[in-house]
Amino acid sequence: MKFVKSWPSNIINTKDHWAVGTVWKMVASSGKGSYNVTMTDKGFSCTCPAFRRCKHIQSVEERFIEEVYYV
């Protein structure tokens, strides 16, 4: 089994959140390929090669907040 790093969210309390397990497909900045961002109980994980909290996770968090609070 591959180890997946989860990065805690500064915006959303993901512990027992209703969206845990949801996967968002994010297009790579090069336009070639995509990455999956997943909400976990511990935060968010991304399949991109970054060794930090990446822009894909930040984008999902921002979109999630916009949809939940501004719709």
Blueprint of the fold:
Blueprint: E1 23-27, E2 34-40, E3 43-46, H1 55-70
Antiparallel strand pairs: 1-2, 2-3
The coarse overall form would be globular
> What is the subunit organization of this protein?
single chain
Quantity of strands, as a count: 3
What is the number of independent domains?
Answer: 1
If you had to describe this structure to a student in words, what would you say it looks like?
The protein is of the alpha+beta class and 71 residues long. It has one domain. The protein has one helix and three strands. It has a three-stranded antiparallel β-sheet, covered by helices on one side. The mean pLDDT is 86.
Summarize this structure briefly.
The chain has 71 residues and is of the alpha+beta class. The chain has one helix and three strands; from the N terminus they run E-E-E-H.
Key attributes of the depicted protein:
single chain; 71 residues; alpha+beta; 23% helix
